[in-house]
Fold this protein.
Amino acid sequence: MLKRTLTAAAAIAAALALTVTQAQAAEITTSGTGWKINTGEKVKALSPSQANTIVFSSTAIKSWYAPYLSRALTQLRAEGLKMAVGGVKAMSTAMCPPRGTIYFTEAYRPLSGKPGYSRAGSCVDSQGVQYSGIVWMNSEYRSGTWKLGAALSHNLPPHELLHALGLDHPNHDKDRDGTVEAYECVATSFGNKPLMCSPNGGYRTTANRGKLVGYDINGVRALLANARILGSK
Ligand SMILES: [Ca+2]
Ligand SMILES: [Zn+2]
């Protein structure tokens, strides 16, 4: 009798040890080939159940930018992300927008006054799960004082959207000269760099510009997988 009890206790102990091992094995991933999660802004994950709505600061900004986002939105929905194009509402950019809001607005040289650059940021909860974000498109594009080519016009808005969702630039010191340079990113055999490459990447062709490249999709998948690992719904 005593022996049987001990055996049962040992079995329970073994089962507990197994559970602990499994919990430790499921760790979040924050970077991979051609993608990187913005851990600098404390982002770890993206909620698969959260409904995300893009809200624009003006009708003119919505009509300018919403078409450029459509291809990326189709891809993000295919990954299981709930993404919708919302309406127009002026909001303060001094604080995080309400949960599920990606606020698209415009500012003059919003990234430290750098000509031609835009800026985006994401808001995260205490677990590191993104819950809202802000995109400041550089007003120089619409005013015409900074000329974007056709490919860039299509690629920059979804690049900034992905920043707001939690992705960072995947640039790395590919040529090992000690410096991570602009455009220094992995590329496909066709020469396509991640959309998230800094200062810009993505497809250049009419058929594909504005789309996430496979690397970027892997980044989105990692953000979603991390949410599940963290137990976020
Ligand atoms: Ca380098
Ligand atoms: Zn960027």
